[in-house]
Amino acid sequence: MSKEQIKLTERTLGSISANKRASWLWFAVLLLTYFITIFFVNMSVRSEAVILIMGQPTPLRLLTGAFSSVANMCIIFLVVFYRRTGFIVALVIMLLQFPSLLASIFVQHNFTSISGICTTLMNMAAMIIIDRNNISIDNYQNRIRSQAVTDGLTGLPNRFAVNEFITDLIHRGERFAVATFDLDNFKNINNTMGHSTGDMILKELANRLKKNADDEKTGTLDLIAYNGGDEFALVIRECDSPDKIYRTLASYEAVLEDKMTIDDCDYYLSSSIGFSVYPEDADNTDEILSHANTAMYEAKRSGIKILRYNKSFSNDDHLLEIERCVRYALDNDTLFFHLQPQYDISHNLRGFEALARMKGPDGNMISPADFIPAAERMGIVDQIDNAVFRKSAMFLGDLIKQTHTDISLSVNVSVKHLMRNDFLDEVRDILDTCGVPARQIEIEITESVMIDSVDKAIECINELKKMGVRIAIDDFGTGYSSLSYLSEFPADMLKVDKSFIDRMNESDSSRQYVSAIISIGHVMNLDVISEGVEDDDQLDTLKEIGCDYIQGFIWGRPMEADAAAELVTKTA
Ligand code: C2E
Ligand code: MG
Ligand code: MG
Question: What is the CB neighbour count within 10 angstroms for residue 312?
Answer without folding.
Answer: 8
